[in-house]
Amino acid sequence: MSAPTCRRRWLAICSITASAALVAIPASAAPGKNNSPFGARTLTRLAAEREQSVGAVTPKLKDEDGDDGNEADEIAEGADQYAEARTSPGVVAPGAYGAAWDSLTSLPRTGGSWRNVTDLPYNSDDPRYRDAASNSSGGSGNVTGRMAAMAADDDGYVYAGSAGGGVWRSRTGGGHWQPISDGLSSQSTGALALDGAGRLWLGTGEATTNADAYLGSGVYVLTDPHHGTFSSRSRVGGDELESTTIHQLRFGGGTVWAATSAGVWSHSTKTLKGAWKLEFAPNPAYLPGASESDDPDAPYKNITNDIAIDPKNPSKVVLAVGWRSGDDYNGFYTKGAGGAWTRITSGLGDLPADADDVGNVTFARSADGSRYYAIDQSPEQLNTNPDSGLEGFYVSKSGSPTGPWTKIADYQGLSASGSALTSSGFMPGVQAWYNQFLTVDPADPEHVYAGLEEVYETKDGGSTWSTVGPYWNFGFSCWSIDPAKQTGDCHQTTHSDQHGVAIGRYHGRSFVYVGNDGGVYKRPVGGSQDSAGHATDWISLNDGTIDTLQYYSVGVGKDLTYGGVSVTGGLQDNGQSILRSNDTVMGSDFGGDGGDTLADPANGCNIAEEYVYLAIQVTQNCAVNDGSWVDDSSKITSYNVAPADNATAEARFIAPLAADAKNPSTWIAGGRHVWVQTHGYAIRNSSEWTSVYDLGEGRTATAVAASGGKVYAAWCGPCNNQGFARGISVGNADGTGWHDITLPVDGTVPNRYLSGFAIDPKNADHVYLTVNGFSRQWTEGPGAGVGHVFESKDGGTTWKDISANLPDVPTDSAVVTPNGGLAVGTDLGVVYRAPGRTTWQRVGDLPAVAVLQLKLSPDGTTLYAATHGRGIYTIKVRDGS
To answer: Taking a C-beta distance cutoff of 8 angstroms, is the pair 780, 90 a contact?
Structure first.
């Protein structure tokens, strides 16, 4: 959802507070093109990489590949569209998720319990899957979902805060993880910090301002983090920080400071009681409940990023304030002589004071107080420089956060430090608005680790830098696709996109722990490096006991080789996972962002996977490949079969894809057009798709479903809150009978995002519709209406609201169970309506995690739930009846 005053150039970004938190919007993202260097690779691309591999740092991609190596615009575009589903047609008031969670937990429960089927290692470099569309051999090893924050102590305890799957604890220096925040209403982590007394502080609400970052419910403290778990009773203060994101928690002088999306707040560390104090909000009129709180720009008017406290004088505090895309209030602030917060306009040295050059900022100070370090992302660079949004790294050698500061790195220098990011359009810091961490070795004030897309290290205070954790190994001369060599002579690196960092000790040895879009990694402090400056000793801590995988979809089919079933699913920034029935380790057979998924119920190795924007790829052998296709193209077994809306940028980031329930060889895909192909998994070319209906210019499909040749397609257009409109089109797979259903704005079906269909297998005219977003109580927009689940018995001509006691929470997916019941996936779990009943029950006891898709097993006895933060879960249908 876009603010009306957004600056729009290349990756100009703005956001909106809503159920899905702060959300990025691109200026000129290129849907339909593969703009991600961490995405599906074509034969041409790999050939180019091979030709450039000897002595090269990154592959030189050809212009005709349609890939400029820029993932940043995809992250931003996905952010926009993920939030549109939950916010349009208006702004969602704070507190919506908290109220929904209270309502959900008060529902009666079904029998049965959920079982996690993805709680085992997920090897992104699995040597079985080296087909053309895989990123296996990139060097990330075992991965899990995005980690937003890290903390560690000197007793071997490590704490990892995930984007949407809660906080996890390891007692063994990493690995053997346990969840410790499942009792909270928010599983989104913004900040983790250990105070001087050894207590663990959790700030909820991820502050990376990306696609799937949820607002939080405040700050919590765990007095005994070695043994306890977080509970609602451990919340600090009152509800002052509900429905915010928390970027950092900092300590000084008996006070904890919180940098939030609603200004800077403080609280005593000696007691958890008493309200938080608002220290500074640059535009208080835009805070919730104030005079301008309903302004569309309100969510970006009080963004704060970090707090620097002078270790020698805790009363001297510097605030880093500002929205990443730029605003007049951006800058550094401190208290003046009169006690009021004032902008610092001079005396900072190299650290910018101008609002155009101060965006997302991270501070770190040395343990001895002799150094302060900072990373600064520049709105001006973000809006004008296609290569990077990084202003620079800085050091204050006085140890004071007021400086003077000296610049010690820029993106060109980092690119030359052994980086994998040397290509125009994607260089270090291109996503500095999204990726940042910074920490100092407690034993050495000049030993610093910094994270952007990659991990950087300096041992001399910033005079020289090494890329100890490159983006990936592709393009380096040591890389090889040969499974026998894993990644050739290259060492394991970390996953890309860094967010959290901590230094701790285990068995007397110091380790640095980093959290990123692939989970948690560690290496010894002062560990070894090769001649290129790459670390040789990274260890993935994603051992399968920690499952924070962020699924968009799930597919299930019979495993004809090993018996049982094969389970696959598309993931945020972690490709497509595949789990065969005999596996002890999951593999990754497709790369990039995995979107919607189809799996043949009769043969689970027949798989169709959407990358993004309907870039559909298909395989009929689970994409098992030894990589020999690099030298012999006839050995490719994955095929790009994208419909034409992919090339014309007329499909959503995660676009809908479905198979006809009665005929698995008939597929429906939705962009601007409703596309049909009838060759099933034998499709080999994009030309095999036929457009059976044009939804209209500016419209794009949000959900599709078909049964016995009857097709339902939901759409939006415009899809944001500026004139939001939605509708349903119905017709036949052969192209006949297509028409738009009349859905007046003030009619039975609300004017909100239509997220999914579930067709009665006995009657194609009997269909259920799920509606995302929040009802009118929370949504300020025209026609927002009420209700989340609707039923039609006449092929969509008329609809009835069957929401009844369903919590007011975004609904994402539905499936009709064999007994005639209806299961619905929501942003907070799964609900169920038994056959013949009118009210809803909660299914099991999943934590507060979004369930984006539900599917049934081939025999219909098991329900599979793709959660966006806690992996894939199953429950027996008979248990939920």
So the answer is: yes
